[in-house]
Amino acid sequence: MIRFLIPFVAVALFLLEPEFALFSPISWGDGVVYLVPRFVILYLIFLSIYYSRKRACIYGLLFGLLYDVFYIDIIGLYSFLYPLVCFIAGSSVKFIHQHLSVTTILSLVLVALMELVLYYFFYFINFTTIPFTDFLSNRLLPTMIANLLFLIMLGWAFKYLINARLLQRARDIS
Amino acid sequence: MPHFMNKKLILLLVGMIFLVALISFSLRDRQNASLPEQFIKDTVGFAQSIVAKPANYITGIFNNINSLLNTYEENKRLKMRLEDFAVLQAEVNTLQSENESLKELVDKESSLKDYDPLNATVIARNPDQWEEKIILNRGSSQGVKLNMAVMSSQGLIGKISLVTPFTSEVELLNTNNPNYRVSAIVQGEKKDVFGLIEGYDVERNELILKRIDSSFEVNVGELVVSSGLGGIFPKGILIGEITEVTTDDFGLTKMAYVKPAADFSMLEDVIIAKRNATIIDGSDGEGTNKDLTNKTNSESANEGEE
User: Fold this and answer.
1) ipTM score of the complex?
2) B-chain residues within 8 Å CB-CB of A66?
3) Given A6, A36, B108, B238, which is the most exposed site by the fewest CB atoms within 10 A?
4) Alpha helix locations (H) across chain B?
5) What is the mean pLDDT of each run of 10 residues along chain A (174 residues)?
6) Which CATH number applies to A2-173: 1.10.10, 1.20.1510, 1.10.3470, 1.10.1760?
7) CA distance B136 to chain A (A)
8) pTM score
9) Which residues of A touch B44 (CB under 8 A)?
10) Among residues B198, B118, B123, which one has the least CA distance to residue B151?
């Protein structure tokens, strides 16, 4: 049961992302604030740190490809970035303490870096012309705050789910 | 060991080249989806539309609560306008019947204003909002074609940018694409003035209406509607209201800032407008200059103005 729950949660988050995106952009004061939901990659970073780097990279490739084809129409952008982020997260396990708060901060830093790479990519191909300071204040900051809220609410659940799966696997082997 | 490293390095390099090739290949032609792409889009779109239903329901509840809180104020305002409305309704009815009888008199069958509405539900919005795009649950099997106008109850919101059999993508009006143009009319007091909606001012959150002849007068507060002369959109869809008029960069023509009538953020149900008059490949379209008018009877194509 738990075995199928891990990919199922990833699929559910993938389908929920665009529904949350319907709320954005929000007018805040005199500016417009963009909230980008990054649920799938946050979940995959958790998988990569607590479960298995290889598995997370494969999921990353799969969901990145779906994301590219369905939303972006530029194949190879997210299907490269998702596995890369998962790989970096999985490789960092040796150097960090695996506490929930540390993982939360690490995943937020990785997502912020990914947003930065995406900004430069879309700036480079002229899809956006907003200056860097606007990107920082109208996009990156609100996105990070929204995703932090998401992780505070559901990060422990991800960890609990992955631990349950690990325990089950250990029982199956023994 | 160095041999092993080399192998990894070569693999990485080949991967990078493959990646760049893939990105540039898919960037080149974004108006058409290849067969596997269509398949993935339709499958994900199907799953998405299942998820979208309860999600829309929940957002609907929130909206209802929100509007319930404003009921008293709104009721007061609406009551004030009700009397005006009755008079206006009577006037519209007489004008409509007069218009119809006059049309019969001159044997005019189709008008640029006529369109078949096709209701569609928004199933997703591009989550990383670098492009302003939404995805609808209607596709080519329901008769949706590229570049059709899409509007909400408030006004024009965009046009279809990609079609698969069961889904379609809408590029919203507030896009950053420099090739995105909508031919429009300013409804002045005496005379209609033509212009082109070209581009979106990110800082002001307003559309820019360019190429207005400088000899015409355009005033703040006048309404901008689609003209139907671009070739694909029907005539008379509300776009927005003028907030500022200036001259353009070269001082030859005027330009105006237009506050869009539609709200681009909380979109749920939209209408795709299928124009009845012959569709011509004009500035709203791809601009391929193909002659599309000779295939059908030329009566409907020749009439340009009301």
Assistant:
1) 0.82
2) 40, 44
3) B108
4) 2-28, 35-69, 71-106, 298-302
5) 85 88 75 87 92 90 91 87 91 85 91 93 84 88 92 89 88 84
6) 1.10.1760
7) 12
8) 0.81
9) 66, 69-70
10) B118
